[in-house]
Structures are given as C-alpha cells and as structure tokens.
Write a structure and sequence with these properties.
Rossmann fold, elongated, single chain, 333 residues
Length: 333
C-alpha cells in the first residue's frame, strides 16, 4: 500500500467509527432518561396539516411517547411565504433538537440545506431523489430518510379515473406549481400516461392563491373539461378555494389525497394521511433509538384509497358511473 493512501484509509475508518459511536451515544442518552426534542417543519398551514399531524402524534403515543412528558416537539408551519422555511429550520436547529421532521418536499429541501448532521425524517415528499434530499430509496445516504407519497407515480391512475368518469374527455388542465419541487415531477409524470390515453394536457401553473382565478380562466379558454390538481404546499393550504373554482368553472376535478375530496374535490386517489403520519412516527422512534437515517430505506406507501364526493358531483350536475362508485373506499354524501 502506498504511504499516501494510509492517511486516507485512517480517516475513512475513523469517520465510520465516530458515526457508529454517535449512534450508540444517542441510544444511550435516551436510555439514561434524556427527553428527546423534535423540530417539526411543515410547508403547509396548520389547518391543512392537522390530520397528518394528529396521525403522527398518535403514532408516537402508540410507541410510548407522550408529548410534554417524555418527548418535546417544537412546531413551525409556513404557508404564506415558503422562502421563510430556511429561517424556520435554523430556529428549530438552534433549539438543540435531536431530530427534525420535515413535511412536504419544500420543507425537506429547506431542512437538508440547513443541516447535514441532525437526523431528518420527511413525510409528504414526492420524489426525494430529484429533490436532492436522498441518494436512493434503498440507501438514502446522508442524514435524511422517511416516506414518499408517490404522487408522481400515481398520475397515470388519476388520469385514467378522469377518463372513466368524464365522457369523451380530451382536454385536461393540470394545476401545478413550478416553484414546488414536489409538484414538478407530478406534471412531468403526467405526460406519458396522457399520450397513451389520448389526452391533451393544459399546463395550469400557479405559485400563489392570487394566481388561481386566472389559471382557471385560461384552462377554460384552452377547452379543458376536467382538472387534475397536483400536491404542492400552496394547493394544500387552499383546497376549498381550488375546489370552489373548479365547480364554478364546471370542471370535474381529481386530487391526490382524501382531505382534498373532503374539501370539495370531486375525486381523490392516493395514500391516506393516517398511514403516512404513523409511519413517520415509526421512523422517529427508530432513529431516537440509535438507527442512522442513511441506513433506513425510504418507504413507499402500498395502500391507496379512492374517495368520491357526491355533493360536488351534484353541484356539477354530474353523474359518477356505478362502476367507479363501486370501487370507492369512501363516498362523501
């Protein structure tokens, strides 16, 4: 072995040893009674995040963590100015937190930029690889891991459902945010399924609630007769506004999560909040007990639910085919 290689080998071995000792020290600190402190950074309003957050807290309770007793959580929700996410992450890190939970792709990106040492558990991330928060699903590397919502993977299924319920559907508007790292892959992933289904997509961009009214007007001018709404922080925090605009413009809508249907979207197809929140809690527990984020594979949901809002269908003067209704996991009457 060349002499020049020996210091490099020594440094590599030392780094591995320190990392392993860090995991042991963390597990020992919890065992000795140190109350862990979490930071919770969400790029969505507290109201829109409430179902997932409650599922997350319930997941922690199921694992023996009681907030205010044997675990502390500091919260930061941001839906008005996503540019402040970095500052929020810095505030949380200054509180000497043991772990940072990041909700949505925007929050995960901000968290990753803010620290390379504090463990990060993310939820609601569309594509952690393209967002730059992980190296791969199987081996995330670095300090971040968690759960992806596979929102981009399911775009084809959502377009199929629209085609099934809207007779002679050709023109579909896609509401997406070019400034949201989780929304971009959903728009991109819509292209190939649309071609196979013979659908023409209209790019309906909006990065602020103020953009929505004009975006819907442009969609109508483009002869759109249905709309698919991608998951993104701005849309997540303005679900009722979007649903009302879709109804006013006579556009049947499909969304990616049950809460959208509960707030007026005609249909929703995707994983549920309850599973995602509890899975996030499970990751937190494993890391607090000494596991390293780099060694925990990123999980993808395997159970999806179809929700249909018949109240919205009635307002649209629209009839959902019985074949689709029979497949629904839940129907909002």
């Amino acid at each position: 072995m060349r002499r020049a290689q020996i210091p490099r080998l020594f440094l590599a071995l030392a780094a591995l040893l320190l990392a392993a000792m860090g995991g042991v020290a963390q597990a020992q600190s919890i065992a000795k009674g140190k109350v862990p402190r979490l930071g919770y950074l969400a790029a969505v309003s507290a109201t829109a995040d409430a179902p997932r957050l409650e599922a997350f807290k319930q997941g922690l309770r199921d694992l023996g963590y009681v907030e205010g007793q044997n675990i502390h959580i500091e919260y930061r929700h941001e839906s008005q100015d996503l540019g402040r996410l970095g500052a929020h992450a810095a505030e949380l890190l200054a509180m000497d937190i043991d772990l940072l939970v990041a909700v949505t792709s925007n929050a995960a990106v901000a968290a990753k930029k803010a620290t390379s040492t504090v463990p990060i558990v993310f939820m609601g991330v569309t594509d952690p690889i393209s967002a730059g928060v992980a190296e791969s699903l199987a081996r995330p590397g670095g300090n971040a891991t968690g759960i992806t919502n596979v929102a981009a993977v399911l775009t084809g299924k959502r377009l199929e459902l629209l085609r099934e319920v809207v007779p002679k559907l050709v023109h579909v508007a896609v509401l997406w945010d070019p400034k949201a790292p989780g929304s971009i892959p959903q728009w991109e992933a819509s292209q190939e399924p649309a071609r196979k289904l013979g659908l023409q997509l209209h790019s309906m961009t909006a990065s602020s609630p103020d953009d929505y009214d004009m975006a819907f007007r442009d969609a109508i001018k483009a002869k759109s007769t249905a709309v698919w709404i991608t998951l993104n922080p701005v849309a997540n925090s303005n679900q009722k506004l979007i649903a009302e605009l879709a109804i006013e413009n006579r556009l049947p809508s499909i969304c990616a999560r049950a809460d959208y249907a509960e707030n007026g979207c005609l249909m929703a197809y995707g994983p549920g909040y309850n599973t995602e929140g509890k899975d996030g809690a499970r990751y937190v527990d494993r890391i607090l007990k000494g596991a390293r984020p780099s060694d925990l594979p990123i999980e993808q949901p395997t159970k999806f639910e179809l929700i249909i809002n018949l109240k919205t269908a009635k307002r649209l003067g629209f009839t959902i085919p019985r074949t689709v209704l029979n497949r629904a996991d839940r129907v909002i009457q």
